[in-house]
Batch of 4 targets.
Target 1
Amino acid sequence: MTPPHSLSELYPRVQQFYADQVHALDSRQFDVYAGTFTEDGEFRHTPGRPPARTRRGIADELSAFHRERFGDEPVQRRHWFGMLRLDQRPDGEIHSTFYALVVTTRPGVRVPEIAPSCVVHDVLVENAGRLLLRSRWVEHDWQPEGAAAPAGGASAHTTDEREVEVGAPLR
Amino acid sequence: MTPPHSLSELYPRVQQFYADQVHALDSRQFDVYAGTFTEDGEFRHTPGRPPARTRRGIADELSAFHRERFGDEPVQRRHWFGMLRLDQRPDGEIHSTFYALVVTTRPGVRVPEIAPSCVVHDVLVENAGRLLLRSRWVEHDWQPEGAAAPAGGASAHTTDEREVEVGAPLR
Amino acid sequence: MTPPHSLSELYPRVQQFYADQVHALDSRQFDVYAGTFTEDGEFRHTPGRPPARTRRGIADELSAFHRERFGDEPVQRRHWFGMLRLDQRPDGEIHSTFYALVVTTRPGVRVPEIAPSCVVHDVLVENAGRLLLRSRWVEHDWQPEGAAAPAGGASAHTTDEREVEVGAPLR
């Protein structure tokens, strides 16, 4: 049983969790990034690619993706997350939905590319006092997946289905 | 009488409020967006357009604006808010000022347009434990309004006029 | 001795500190910006320019930089900070690392320039209940400085060197 957290406690904690996570990702510490998932975690980051599973699988998928996409190019990527919505469930899961932009800079080129725009659906759990990602599903705005549910789709769309009462008291 | 909130409580709560609000807006749930205003709320979103008033008026204005601007184009917009400043007033009003960017993606086009850059002036109130917007005024950086005060301008500029003592303790 | 803060208290407080700071900066209130540093604060904002020191020196450097860069152009800049990581040290220093983007709008031009992408390394201290910057070092992604340590580099890289255990409990 995980006790519910106040939004005051949870919100900055999740913001810091994401900051730690993307600083690792953008430094190409793929093992550290994968270590932010549960052992059996699932990660769907690009439409058309099968989901990666387990920490080992997630780290391998990220290495492969970067190699295919950038080869030896010394690009610096920066993942920005924003407009974070958190929803604590009675079973202790934390459903998190937020916007993401990827900023990519090439050495000597002052103006970065900012693309794509995404919305990310996470399921977080707490394990021995640590936050971990059970699943992450990234939707790309330019490649709408429509009504297609992700494989093992329990983690998808859930935050969109909740009754929204914007501005309600903390829960 | 609304009791004052600590910044620890208020800041994440307002961030979540805005996240819920823009996720609704960007899903074109204009009624949900309008429902984040007080019944007599006022919304000035674009220079040269008269302010919309009341929830009904705000929802109608958003529908009209989207129809004129995008017609049947299947664009996906994402509103990003950042650099949020909160100022609690003795009367319980919360004055909020922040930056905004609008990210617009068209299907099949990977790189979104990011424009315009804005600064937003909100007045929030708490009603039966719920945050609601009493007024929102959006300034567009590319169309400076100069010294022109908005109609019923009590809500405008106020956060800029306060004595800034950056880094002061919570209040 | 500064007591350690909970992340719940510290994180929103630093976010508000940065918001206050950049609203001042983007309004060209360089004295207010400089006043967010300690009296002997150090500010390195652009590769190749020597660090500015003391509040007077920082305000002067900003005035000079803006004059050189923009002259009388009526540009509106907006500094966006994101993906904030905070690390409290036993001696009371708060090491803060975050991403930054500069959004620059020219009157009449709807689409702003968004550049450069940066990562910022701050050292914050608390003085008489107020947060102040002891040092700020801005790395520009398009001009990698490599292994070159900044002058008086105690403040640099430190947050990257800490043992990252993402999602660990508050400390």
Target 2
Amino acid sequence: MSIYTTLQSLGITLPEAATPAAAYLPFVQSGDLLFVSGHISKRDGRVLAGQLGRELDTAQGRQAARGVAIDLMGTLHAACGDLRRVRRIVKLLGLVNSTPDYTEQHLVINGASELFGEVFGPAGQHARSAFGVAQLPMGAAVEIELIAQLQD
Amino acid sequence: MSIYTTLQSLGITLPEAATPAAAYLPFVQSGDLLFVSGHISKRDGRVLAGQLGRELDTAQGRQAARGVAIDLMGTLHAACGDLRRVRRIVKLLGLVNSTPDYTEQHLVINGASELFGEVFGPAGQHARSAFGVAQLPMGAAVEIELIAQLQD
Amino acid sequence: MSIYTTLQSLGITLPEAATPAAAYLPFVQSGDLLFVSGHISKRDGRVLAGQLGRELDTAQGRQAARGVAIDLMGTLHAACGDLRRVRRIVKLLGLVNSTPDYTEQHLVINGASELFGEVFGPAGQHARSAFGVAQLPMGAAVEIELIAQLQD
């Protein structure tokens, strides 16, 4: 099953590529590595804000992380033209907006990690780090940065 | 206009390369990628400390981030001998010392991102992540880590 | 003196490679770069938890970071078959579970950085960033992510 068929069967529509901000780019390629900027959690085009352990629980955080993964795939599609050019999802850096007592960042970021596995299969299996940050831009619940390896 | 002329026109003097710490190096090259260690904010050679949302406001944070970018350029110059060997600023990781309620980390790190664009032009446009950390070494306000691609 | 002799002389036994989690991998190789997932601090196979500035002091944090470095070496050994295939420890990302007032993250992560230098010699000297995070998965005291360059 192709990546796009899998996305369709999961009911996922990729978003348009994010409009580049003034000061930086959504991605930069160097050799065959694609460095994708941190994407923050959104819902219906607006920032999905909140701190885990205060306004949001782990299930909500997982959903937020899954949404970020979909946005990252939209950016990968924009960067590559075709997601089949993604040879490997190499690494995620998963940042979770956390109170000083919230300790389930790994479960939150699983919402993104599992979707990459479902959509890309073995090529979607990646290294990663997940941790709790004091805050995120615009109060976002989750931010994820990604490195992918592309076909030459 | 060359990079050094641009720096001069902006009134920027690059600092001497940071003295390597005992336990780690200011940069390591691997292939054509240069991995530059996190640089913390300084003023007049001393740590520029303070937490955003407590001791410092966004404008002060922007200035701190701009100062870190200048220090990073000093390290890039030391690593390369000549900044024209920088083919691309690939990625910044921008850490902002933040209270649990401060949400303008992106505006703070713009102080660095915009300077890379001004000085390096299109080669200075980069991917990045910006987020709020609970604290930084020696209480620094900002820490930025960088990956650059060098000419072969 | 070989790497394994050095480890023996330091009384260090490398752990078995971590069992891969369901959602992600302990490491991914891309070209000659090995991206190693964040490893959290453990003692006797259980999470070594606690926040610096609250339950743990800097000396205890250093020990925790040294332990993470040993676990990372176990993963490097599993990834490479032989640690002599590690051409260079390129970069560490050192995350310290910190109260909003704890500012010695660099001293904590030195516990890992210094061990890499002792065990690998010049090949162990690396770039790095160290910073304080609001929390870590399962309340771990320290988490460290690593990039290494391998022999072709």
Target 3
Amino acid sequence: MAARRIYRGAWIEVSTEEVSLPNGRQVTLDIVRHPGAAAVVPFLSADEVLLIRQYRHAAGGTIYEVPAGKLDAGEDPAECAVRELEEETGYRAGRVEALGWIFTTPGFTDERIYLFAAYELEKTRQRLEDDELIELVPVPLDSALELIWSGELPDAKSSLALLHAARLLGKLA
Amino acid sequence: MAARRIYRGAWIEVSTEEVSLPNGRQVTLDIVRHPGAAAVVPFLSADEVLLIRQYRHAAGGTIYEVPAGKLDAGEDPAECAVRELEEETGYRAGRVEALGWIFTTPGFTDERIYLFAAYELEKTRQRLEDDELIELVPVPLDSALELIWSGELPDAKSSLALLHAARLLGKLA
């Protein structure tokens, strides 16, 4: 496989790769390499979760999400989830539970997001980065699911993290 | 907003943009512009769906998905869903139902994928592109959901399309 790097940004890398497919054909594909990320559903109580509303330039506005962030080099996804949760919301998790992982959009990126639920939250303080504008939105888990079904929470990682967490609680048949 | 285009590929465009946030701060962000896509859950019967197994270079192997593809310029998402379904599987849909749309990963791309269910399928013929290696995998809808919960179907658009379709059928509480 021949690869030509086109761009290396702060955290994405874009390259054009000559790929031999399993059937022997050669194709040229653009790929966005990403370090991966973790996303976490914070449980404030047995049936209340903490969503965030965040300005996302790529989304053209403010959207609902769960706390999430990129993996630092060599960072364990569960540690990343705990770190991002505390930075973005000011809650330290006593316990996290793995909910699996997703390919966000495997047609053009290798990005994987590891999904977690966080429990036993203890208030510390929010530490936002310059480009983070985050509002905390506590909601009943059932209301969060309703936001998914109604289309008001279109973010894929957040939706799948919430659905996996709800299923573990027996909320989905 | 100042934008500098870094790369224009066959269907992704990468740029670095100087963005004024709602709080007045200026930040520089990399963004991958994407034309959008449609994904569709094909119903072979009331309780059987057609998954595909597809080689994805970015995923490093073959993964389960539902049929999907990029929007042509100006194309209606529902028309795209019908077209991609027939190209990838050789089934023409008599009827499609909109299931909403998702942001795949709004931290770095504006890609939206529109989700559909397709019914009243009629066999025509598969027309694959050179870079498509697709195996058809009919499964009961319940088994498709089990693949999501077990982590064997990590593709985000496919999981969310299946979950929305299952909910409309009363399969999720």
Target 4
Amino acid sequence: MKYSEKRFIVTGGAGFIGSHMVDALLVRGAKVTVVDDFSTGFREFLPKHPLLTLAEGTLLDTEFLDRTFAGHDFVFHFAANADVKDGLKHPRKDVEQNTIATHNVLEAMRKNGLREVAFSSTGSAYGEQTVIPTPEDAPFPIQTSLYGASKVACEGLLTAYAFGFGFRVFVYRFVSMLGPRYTHGHIIDFYRKLLADPTRLEVLGNGLQKKSYLHVSDCIRAMLTIVEKSAMPNDVHIYNIGHTDWLEVNRSIQIICREMKVSPKLEYTGGERGWVGDSPKILLATERLRGLGWKETFSVEDAVVDTLKFLTRNPFCLERG
Amino acid sequence: MKYSEKRFIVTGGAGFIGSHMVDALLVRGAKVTVVDDFSTGFREFLPKHPLLTLAEGTLLDTEFLDRTFAGHDFVFHFAANADVKDGLKHPRKDVEQNTIATHNVLEAMRKNGLREVAFSSTGSAYGEQTVIPTPEDAPFPIQTSLYGASKVACEGLLTAYAFGFGFRVFVYRFVSMLGPRYTHGHIIDFYRKLLADPTRLEVLGNGLQKKSYLHVSDCIRAMLTIVEKSAMPNDVHIYNIGHTDWLEVNRSIQIICREMKVSPKLEYTGGERGWVGDSPKILLATERLRGLGWKETFSVEDAVVDTLKFLTRNPFCLERG
């Protein structure tokens, strides 16, 4: 792919993963338009760059999208409600901000003649799987969370647009990402709690949940590798993106406590799951991705340490959420 | 299940399958409220019955739903855009009338304390499968149509509500249904065309598409059998409903022409698929359902003949679509 010849939209471009993709595209000489409403994104994550344009607005505003998408070629669609844990508190949020928003993105593309889109899906799309590591063609999943359900709904829309309108679609099923600009998930939750009270730490579930994590720089390389090299039938490119390794919550706590130099009393809320709809074990099979020549560089532990380093140096990220 | 002790909502209760369910529930002594906007349903399909109430309105009107659902126990949710073939002509229709409408149904249930819901999904949810007959735990499907994508989105919402809010959910993945009150699909299309011009018949695709069909009376028995007998983990009951047999389009045409006593020239549009996103082979594995003691009674051919008999006797059904 000749990046300098394409004009990219990055939705959620001021967010954690999106902003790293913006940097990666700019460094390759691409023109980039960031679409973000700053509901969870940070202006601090966006560089000043002559090739970068900011379009501030919401994906629920279809006129704004139609206007903004004109004259572009390729969409990286990251904007989403990524609040997995509290989905049940606001049951319309995932439908609106994920499913409907994604459909709006696809419609704005169709109307403006854009045909290439890459979408950040999730390992949660597999629901609670019995096959671990979970491959892309695992058994038809039963959704256990509104978040997973909404992401699967988005995937279906993308692939239907591939078949129906000749779109070229890339679906990334992510494990949890770590690294600079990480602002959401169990590490920031623990970090925040331990800053407030280093003597005790409430842990959701029994601490035995075990999940895979990946450093965001490895993730960005994986996404670009897929866009550049993937050859799949019908131009539907579905890839797990994750580490071969995984990390138990208890081990994660050990690393965090060591780095923060604290020894809290651990208070488990109990049960196998951190919350309703939580999958206690997440490890994705990534042979498809590795077949393109990709390999992670960070160990999971180093990714956790790098995340903590970022949070320590950028306390403004703690002010939200 | 003691039907006479429950108050049922049947969305799409004036439609093909919905109206048969209404009849089946009334005959069992249940109180039934039909929710229908008559966009595709027929008033002629609803009986006058002291236990039947009609609530005319759309599933996109959340206030209407909240008001109507109060005081009920169990929802059979049939209302949907079932226009699979022309999904690409109106790309927002499936999202609105299937995904958003279903979410509105679930929210109206949650707000009113209803917790049991049965949903008409589809074999199209499997996309284009390599495993035929296709079981409920077939490989993670790639959606090829907006219709299939929207139904999978609905399934995900239902099961997420099961895990999140303790709902009891029944998901029926149907093959195409036939029989009295059938008003949509290839048989009525052929029938209508042959009435207009018995000398020729345009056939979408190459005529070799082969799909499974079931008589609606067998379908109703299957749905009730599942509600009465199914025991599945987490109260998530997912079942294929279909025949062991299937029918090639060309064979279907033979039956229709024989019954109508016509011999048209067949004009194939060509290609393996009738339309974009069409699955040329649909046959569902139904061991799970048969394990509950259910068995079909109509042969596929008899179901086609019974459908034609209905259409001949009820020409008002030809006036729409």
